[in-house]
Amino acid sequence: MERGRCGAQASGVNYGGVRQQGRHPAELALARRSRAIWGSLKSLIGTDCEFTPTGHLKLARNDDDMAELTAHHLLLGAHGIHTTVLDADDLKSRFPYLSSRFAGGSFCAEDGQANPRLVAPAFARAARALGADIREGCRVISAERCDNGFSIRLDTDHAVVKARRLVNTAGAWGAQIAAQFGDQVDETVMAPNMCVTEPIAPLIGPNLGICGGGIYIRQTAHGSIIFGAGLGTADRERLRARPLAEITMEAAAAAVAMVPELKNVLILRSWTGIEGRMPDGLPVVGPSPSVEGLFHAFGFSGHGFQLGPAVGAVLAELGLDGHSPTSISGLALTRFKQAPAPAIQS
Fold it and tell me: Which DSSP string do the residues of 327-345 spell out, in sequence order?
């Protein structure tokens, strides 16, 4: 049940980076499994959604950043993710279009990019072909526990759907659904400020990021440069989000500071979307601590695109088998101290 269209919110309007590098340890098992799924998308859903393993280059500004990248390199290696730590001379020889101000970087060749506008609709089409009942333009008014499962009331002619299990993947509205079952957690909203330029000749190979966050840049197969930095504005209740001109200008300046040859490239469009953000920047993934048969996956805090395929697989395993071989330790809702559920008034 989807209030709008599949992929119309954060899943379809994000940057499109498919990276394992730069993740919190709690996400690495999911990221590793998800990368394997990304590599087999065409056989799974009939299209590769423009997934290309262009690599991901995370840049260091100084020696402290280099030390952080080196430590992360060791952590990733323990999870079977290979990266190469590069010094300033390596950057100059391998990526000559970069500014000379960087002390070095870390390159993960397995990482890459995909087109977020294609992915969620492609999964939906493949699911329909296998018999799934996917209802778009269908808003959930309320959900509650009932005999043998759950009762979900919809805004279409007051229809009611019954289910043995319920999976809450409501994005920035995930905490609102969870609260209906007594699972209390704070979820705010964010609106990543994104931009795309006119197509130019091939220039940038891998996705580019920077240690500590900030500007991120990639070039698509047809030549456009996609970049982002900072946040626009989002109104969760009115379902509205917009980029901010001043943030776009700052992002453009940061992009040019990273890749000077972008100085005279024209920006065609800026955009944003509504994304849920958790207090610690990590998503909630796993079973409800309060209600049997209820599963949550929301609050991906701006970096859930790459994780999505594995999260779907894990939720299916939890719902059908009661367990998953992929660790989601550290992502449980119980890591937050839950406020007591409000008393029910008679």
Answer: --TT--GGGS-PPPPPPPP
Asked if pLDDT for residue 342 goes beyond 90, the answer is no
User: Using alpha carbons only, what angle is made at residue 330 by residues 39 and 32, rounded to the nearest 5 degrees?
Assistant: 15
Q: Please, where are the H alpha helices in the chain?
A: 10-13, 28-38, 41-45, 63-78, 88-94, 116-129, 174-179, 245-258, 308-321
Residue 345's pLDDT is 39
Say what the pLDDT of residue 337 is. 76
167-204, pLDDT tens digit by residue?
999 999 999 999 999 999 999 999 999 999 999 999 99
Least confident of 7-16, 207-216, 331-340: 331-340
**Amino acid, single-letter form, for residue 110:** E
Determine contact, residues 20/296, Cβ cutoff 8 Å: no
At 301, list the tokens: 């805090």
Report whether pLDDT(68) > 50. yes
Cα angle, residue 303 at apex, residues 47 and 166 outer, rounded to 5°? 75
For residue 52, the 8-state DSSP code is B
- What predicted TM-score, i.e. pTM, was given to this entire model? 0.92
Band the pLDDT of 338: cuts 50, 70, 90.
low
Cβ-in-10-Å burial (0-12, 13-18, 19+) of 117 comes to middle
| Cα 86 from Cα 80, distance rounded (Å) | 19
Cα separation, 343 vs 346, whole angstroms: 9
3 state DSSP class of 183 = coil
**How is residue 266 written in tokens?**
């024209």
The CA distances from residue 260 to 256, 264, 275, 346, in Å, are 5, 9, 31, 66
How many Cβ atoms from other residues are within 10 Å of residue 94's Cβ?
Answer: 15
Tokens of 310: 């594995």
3-state secondary structure of 1: coil
- Average pLDDT over the chain, rounded to whole? 94
Residues in contact with 7: Cβ distance below 8 Å, sequence separation at least 6, in sequence order: 116, 117, 119, 120, 121, 124
Q: Is 237 helix (H, G, I), strand (E, B) or coil?
A: coil
Residue 78: other Cβ atoms inside 10 A: 9
